Backbone:
């Protein structure tokens, strides 16, 4: 399995496959699940990191200012990943740095 190219990361340092990350012990930590201690392996990306994603929004229901406000709140208070603020962690916070609006007609045109 190859890691998603939506994430910008150092492939020389981290490799390009899940197997490579799994063999690196610094990404494996013990966690408690239903009173049992098990090992969990997660990817860790040094700062700065980024990802690209798309949000499908009905403009008649949600305007862009609402969406930007929700993304801001989610990035500060909820976060991404296992150790995000919502789960009493201190990682996974994010900010939106660049939003590109794509009309649905353009998206439909680009799809085969």
Residues:
């Amino acid at each position: 399995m190859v890691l998603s190219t939506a994430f910008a990361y150092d492939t020389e340092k981290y490799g390009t496959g899940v197997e490579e990350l799994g063999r690196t012990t610094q990404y494996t930590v013990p966690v408690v699940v239903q009173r049992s201690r098990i090992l969990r392996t997660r990817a860790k990306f040094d700062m700065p990191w980024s990802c690209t994603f798309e949000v499908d929004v009905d403009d008649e229901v949600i305007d862009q200012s609402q969406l930007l406000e929700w993304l801001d709140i989610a990035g500060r208070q909820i976060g991404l990943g296992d150790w995000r603020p919502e789960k009493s962690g201190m990682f996974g916070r994010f900010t939106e740095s660049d939003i590109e609006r794509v009309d649905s007609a353009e998206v439909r045109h680009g799809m085969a």
Remarks:
- Residues 1-45 form one domain.
- The radius of gyration is 18 Å.
